[in-house]
Amino acid sequence: MITEWTTKLRYLPYENWPAEQIADIKKNIANSHWRLGYHIQPSTGLMNDPNGFSYFNNQWHLFYQSFPYGPVHGLKNWTHLTSNDLVNWQDHGPILLPGDAQDSHGAYSGSGIVVDDKLFLMYTGNVRDKDWVRHPKQDGAWLDKNNQLQKIATPLIDQVKPGFTDHFRDPQIIEHDGQYYCLIGARKKDDTGHVLVYQAPKVTGPWSYKAELKFTDEPMGYMIECPNLVFIDNKPVLIFCPQGISQDVLKHQNIYPNAYVVGEGFDWDKFEFINPSTIKNLDEGFDIYATQAFNAPDGRVLSISWIGLPDTTYPSDVEGWAHCYSLVKELKLIGGRLYQQPVVENNQLVEATIDSKEIAPQTKISATISGLEGTIVITTEEDEEIKIIIDAPNGKILVDRTKAGIPFATDFGTTRGFEMAGEINQVDLYLDNTVFELYVNNGELVFTGRIFPKGKKFFAESDLPIAKQRLKKIY
């Protein structure tokens, strides 16, 4: 296994890698007890941002940014996934490959939109010159009904807007009243984060700058990544990642937060939120970032998140793979707050009720706890534990992974807590071996995190009334 990742290795063309590199990683993965049962995970190497989430040709499509040769950021491709039900995903392998003039050093994040009988993909092409100066390009590609991809050789947006740096990426493409718009995360030369909006009559262009998205008067740190604008009950919701945002603007505990803002309305001419809310955390847990959401044709607003963080080392790195995705969630607005709920299709994962203290690595634990105080503890045979401490009447909850296995990201703490405005009445915990998703009050609050226990057996105990269900292992 490679332990010293030089720039040359990270950007080595795919055809120059020996076949043994992938084979060695697969051997490690075959012996790993940290792999997941029903969360999307990489076949090898790094899984980064979710991209191109869409519904096309009677299937759900998703792409993951991938560096298949190791658990590091290198020469990235888009790897293609399809599903009939948002739960069982088929991995078709890398499809959007880097190496052409417009994406010579990587296919970075982007989105997808259906146009006639094809899926159009818009993404950032990472281009470096001989002096290693970055020249980001916003590129396009077409996917047909046979899952054949054709890249567009000429960049759709070739230059960074004057006054901005080379941190100019992650286009989200949307359509309104016959016009196409793309939102791009950007860093200004004064080190402030912004979302820039471009407009075109067709997805292939010509694209021209329209405006800066106006959604807050607060400073948004030094860079905004992964902007996603969706509409729930006709209200705009922006999901984004403000790097370097002040704690005075958004209290957060992770290295970088994934945030959202809701407006009462939207001005399409000015690209401006009407009466925007304060900025809130999308997830109060440990490991959520780069969430991608879209307005699906069935009327739902769906999202999926990267369970991983930039600039963070994870224990599975030593096995040659890193990260995974959340369950697909449906987004709703209730009382002005964003609710996230696992899509109803996840109900098919339930296999059986568990009556014993020992639980499966893939287990759902539910508790109706109105008026109660108590703790849910998941342990292993190695005396590891993750604790969920709940004071339901006062709306307080604390998730503690201090003793949950091999420590990581400890500079940012090993507990996460939140005090809600009202009472807690329901919690649902989805455990999948080394990842957990905790949904409070049917998704009013979500805590997501990774754990890397040495133990292989799990046990659940609580002084609260809990119900346990074994879930399918589909991967």
UniProtKB/TrEMBL annotation:
The record's InterPro entries line, in alphabetical order, gives: ConA-like_dom_sf, GH32_Enzymes, Glyco_hydro_32, Glyco_hydro_32_AS, Glyco_hydro_32_C, Glyco_hydro_32_N, Glyco_hydro_beta-prop_sf, Suc6P_hydrolase
Question: What compartments host this protein?
Answer: Cytoplasm
| NCBIfam families the record matches | scrB_fam (TIGR01322)
- State the UniProt keywords alphabetically: Carbohydrate metabolism, Cytoplasm, Glycosidase, Hydrolase
The lineage's top-level taxon is Bacteria
The protein, known as: Sucrose-6-phosphate hydrolase
Q: What's any GO biological process attached to this entry?
A: sucrose metabolic process
Pfam family of the protein (one): Glyco_hydro_32C
Kindly tell me the pathway this chain contributes to.
Glycan biosynthesis; sucrose metabolism
Enzyme Commission number: 3.2.1.26
The protein's annotated catalytic reaction(s) are: Hydrolysis of terminal non-reducing beta-D-fructofuranoside residues in beta-D-fructofuranosides
Q: Which GO terms describe its molecular function?
A: beta-fructofuranosidase activity
Primary location class: cytoplasm
Domain Glycosyl hydrolase family 32 N-terminal intervals: 39-342
Q: Cite the Glycosyl hydrolase family 32 C-terminal domain residue spans from the record.
A: 375-458
| GO cellular component term, pick one | cytoplasm
Q: Which family does it belong to?
A: Belongs to the glycosyl hydrolase 32 family.
The record's function comment reads: Enables the bacterium to metabolize sucrose as a sole carbon source.
